[in-house]
Amino acid sequence: MAKICAGCGKEMGMFNGKVQVKDKEYFCNSCWEKAGFNTWGDLMDKPQMYTSKDIIEMIKGSKTHDSIIKDFVVTADICPSAKFNDDTKQMILADHAFVYVTSDPQNKRAENYTLFSYDQIVSFELLENGESVASGGIGRAALGGILFGGVGAVVGASTRSYKSVCEELKIKVTVKDYKDPAFYIPLIIIGTNKSSSEYKEKMKMAQNILSKLQLITSVSAPEKTETMDKFEEIKKYKNLLDEGIISQEDFENKKKELLNL
Ligand SMILES: [Zn+2]
């Protein structure tokens, strides 16, 4: 089926280079390039980060990747390292450690953030001194007591490492990106005493981020399966129609029923 480019309105054939963005709209390669991307390396899952509205603004030149991050609307303010928009189902994650808890929370330096779409998240893990202390993700139960316990649960989970100093605390987020599947959110980058309030504050931040990621991955997974099941079901009826077992009318009725039309 021919797809229409949401940028220039051009019809694109099956084999034309095209890119599908977050809201399932398509862009032709030439519009994708005009938005400032290259047609090879940035293909695959990267376009999922952006909505068609973002791309159209980027083609017009009124938006850039940096301005999208600077103007990112936060609906769930977790901490400076992870900001979420539950309406557009996008998040920006910092690859820069905010060394002091009191550091400017309004820090919006775009270069420290990367934009992700909720459906790009596969799994996540909290690493302390290189050791995994909590994890979760699509189709996985949260480990390390990150969901239902308080701060104490996370702190308790990490007491199995004997060191009284945390040298490094970071969250690893695995995303659907073939080029760059691992994203690290550094929380502690210098030796911090585990009895300090700084450490407790960072652990609380970690728990908030992990809980949010767990919520996102547990909400998005069943939805996908349900839709997939419906398409599988429709395909079965299509086969029955092709084999002449059911009529076109039967098929249309079943399709409408399954898609809630
Ligand atoms: Zn186009």
Outline:
This protein is an alpha+beta fold. 33% of the residues lie in helices and 25% in strands. The strands form five sheets. The protein has a five-stranded antiparallel beta sheet with strand order 11-10-9-13-14, with helices on one face.
What labels would you give this structure?
6 helices; 5-stranded antiparallel beta sheet; alpha+beta; 261 residues; Herpes Virus-1; 4-stranded antiparallel beta sheet; 3 domains; 15 strands; single chain; binds zinc ion
Task: Walk me through what this model shows.
The chain has 6 helices and 15 strands. The two termini are 21 Å apart. The protein is globular. The strands form 5 sheets. It has a 5-stranded antiparallel sheet with strand order 11-10-9-13-14, covered by helices on one side. It has 3 domains: 3-63, 2-Layer Sandwich (Herpes Virus-1); 72-219, no CATH class; 221-259, no CATH class. The chain is 33% helix and 25% strand. The longest helix has 46 residues, at 197-242. By secondary structure, it is of the alpha+beta class. A hairpin with a 5-residue loop joins strand 3 (18-20) and strand 4 (26-28). Helix 5 (197-242) runs antiparallel to helix 6. Zinc ion is lined by residues 5, 7-8, 10, 27-28, 30-31.
